[in-house]
Design a protein that fits this description.
Elements (H helix, E strand, L loop, with lengths): L1 H40 L7 H25 L13 H20 L1 H4 L4 H33 L3 H15 L4 H8 L4 H26 L3 H15 L1
Helix pairs in contact: 1-2, 1-5, 2-5, 3-9, 5-6, 5-9, 6-8, 8-9
Amino acid sequence: MSNNFNENVKLNNNDISFTMIKIIILLITLQISRIIIKQIMFLFLPKNNLNDILISICIMLFFIFFIIWKAKKEETHLDVFSYMMSNETKIYYILVTVCILILIFISPSFISKLSFESLVSLLYTIIIIPIYKEILFRSYIWSILIKEHEDQRKVYFITSVLFSLYHIGYIDTIIMTSGFNKMALIIFAKCSLMLSYGIFIGFFRYKIKNSYSCMLVHGFLNIIGRL
């Protein structure tokens, strides 16, 4: 009886380890793919801030559709709009979404620098990035880990750490904007900030049980970051 129990525990631990390896490989693949695609595009386009943002938007949109396709293929529920069945809940989310959109259009970065580049930058920072990262971390990876862990608190912790470490992959952007000076310090500061982001945003996924609330919170935090 004891041997069977120990074997089951080992099998379960092996499944969890295999799942974590697959997740880490996915995250590394996404970042490497992003860097390669961006560098290829810069062979044909001038290397400037606007083109960098436009390319990043296209890449993230592709990744969003890829994750949705992958989740559907694996029969993994993304739980984007879970627990939003009642009319009261839907009205609440609509009101919060409208408030976020109003904040976007009254933010100083939008009003003071009204241009095509500023509009694209806002779209990227406050809408595209939150949707992509929350679909990836608080939807897909969260749901994958839930299948392996019954304890949601452990899933909450793991996704927060992965969310933080994922931003090491933006080293190309750090080099492009800041050069190699203090690169290690910038990466450490960014990962520390993203860990706090992950813990704060993940709390809403843990409590509210859907990732749309995380997208709203993520977008709001990015608005604050642009003030």
